Amino acid sequence: SMQCFPGLVLALSSLLGALALLQLSLHLRVPSRYGKHEERLCRPRGRLPARCAWFLQELPSFLVPALLLALRSPPRLEPLGCRLLCCLFCWHYFYRTFIYPFFTRGRPFPLQLLFFGMLFCIYNGFLQGYYLIYCAEYPNDWCTDIRFTSGLLLFLLGMGINIHSDLLLRQLRKPGEVTYKIPQGGLFTYVSGANYFGEIVEWFGFAIATWSLPAFAFAFFTLCCIGPRAYHHHRYYLKTFTDYPKSRKALIPFVF
Ligand code: NDX
């Protein structure tokens, strides 16, 4: 049966950090080509409806850690922190896999990115799940540690912002519509990338709560991946809408 190999965790986390830097260097200037940054009507056949695409892409991030948690024998009962944290991760991806895709009104998603996105989700789902189920050691009172409680609070706050902002974006369109409008309300009052801001806060909260290398590597990846994307969205809005709110920032309210 499986056991903890600390070297494997270190290697996979380092590679995740390296992928973050690669992602940053590839997409700081040019955005990832999906959604509003995909050239219109190019490769019409190489796409899948947004619903299927997001479902398939994010499913492994839910399934892999959920299976690791369920199948570990003997089941890991101590300490509580490990299971709780693994459940938090799965909870986010339950939303992203089983709820978000069924309501999205997004444009068809490029197959090629879907393929890499799935690989990424398998990789990260395995790393986070494997670490928490097989490697992590927490004192039995971790749930009352300031890192756990403040991290959990940030996680919940970020998740709330992320889900609320996803909802506001979805309401900009009627079913079947694919046009872009100026997002309004919630944190969009302050930033163009409100959903991304929420997601970044969420994963840094998770990293603080787990206090682990894999979780910090993933938070860093998230920052490198969707941080620049928020900036590209912001530039797109400024270019497209002459009446775009002048005081709105790209990612961080009042700052950047
Ligand atoms: N999926 C994370 N790199 C990514 C997919 C692509 O979950 O190989 C990262 C994620 C993957 C990427 C993933 C990782 C890196 C990959 C990349 C492909 C290549 C790359 C694998 C896994 C790679 C190397 C080589 C380095 C390994 O039509 P539409 O779709 O634009 O409609 C949109 C709509 N909308 C509007 N509607 C009306 N008016 C407007 N003004 C609108 N603006 C937007 O709202 C969508 O339907 C919806 C949301 O759009 P958008 O663009 O704001 O968000 P989106 O980027 O689609 O993300 C959706 C949610 C969001 O909450 C975000 O926080 C979360 O997913 N997310 C997204 C990306 C990554 C991630 C989280 C994370 O890293 N944690």
From TrEMBL:
Keywords: Differentiation, Endoplasmic reticulum, Lipid metabolism, Membrane, Microsome, NADP, Oxidoreductase, Sexual differentiation, Signal, Transmembrane, Transmembrane helix. InterPro entries: 3-oxo-5-alpha-steroid_4-DH (IPR016636), 3-oxo-5_a-steroid_4-DH_C (IPR001104), SRD5A/TECR (IPR039357). It is a multi-pass membrane protein. Residues 1-20 form the signal peptide. One of its GO terms (biological process) is sex differentiation. It holds the Pfam family Steroid_dh. Belongs to the steroid 5-alpha reductase family. PANTHER family: 3-OXO-5-ALPHA-STEROID 4-DEHYDROGENASE (PTHR10556), 3-OXO-5-ALPHA-STEROID 4-DEHYDROGENASE 2 (PTHR10556:SF37). This is 3-oxo-5-alpha-steroid 4-dehydrogenase 2. It comes from Emberiza fucata. The lineage of its organism: Eukaryota, Metazoa, Chordata, Craniata, Vertebrata.
